[in-house]
Amino acid sequence: MVPDTVHVVDAFYSAYVVGDQAGMLAFMSCTVSLRFLGRVELEGINEVRKFLAFNEGTREALDFRIRRRLVDGEWAAVIWSETARVAETGAPWQNHGVDVLRIHNGEVELVHVNNDLRVVRTHLPSYE
Q1: Is there a domain that residue 67 lies in?
Q2: Rounded to whole angstroms, what are the CA distances from 106 to 26, 29, 47, 74, 109?
Q3: CA 7 to chain centre
Q4: Are 113 and 36 in contact (CB under 8 A)?
Q5: Cα-flanking dihedrals φ and ψ of residue 10, to 5°?
Q6: What is the dihedral of CA 113, 106, 44, 86, to 10 degrees?
Q7: Counted domains in the chain
Q8: What is the pLDDT of residues 79-99, one digit of tens each?
Q9: How many CB atoms lie within 10 A of CB 32?
Q10: What is the CATH number of the domain that holds 118?
Q11: Checking DSSP bridges between strand 107-115 and strand 28-36, what pairing results, if any?
Q12: Which pLDDT score, from 0 to 100, does residue 128 have?
């Protein structure tokens, strides 16, 4: 149902923007599938929780902007851009991308983050 998808997507990104990992996780299914293009492919809420904890603090003064949100039933595409500083080096960070999400029964079931992999590999630590 589209209103449910819109509500969950909006709440999920509202939590992200303020750095509320617990809030983001609260909207995810226990069996969530999360893929950051060329970086990680994770299955299940516990794996996602570990990655979010690892990734926290890698950038400072994050300015994340949703440019457009498209919703079709249980699917959503979120076009975004962001700027920040890389915490480890102080280098400027600028990236953009599109996330694809599937919302099922009021929970985020799938998230595919597609962005500029060159920027990620240049500035962020790899996740093992």
Answers
A1: yes
A2: 11, 9, 20, 9, 9
A3: 16
A4: yes
A5: -60, -45
A6: 40
A7: 1
A8: 999 999 999 999 999 999 999
A9: 22
A10: 3.10.450.50
A11: parallel
A12: 76
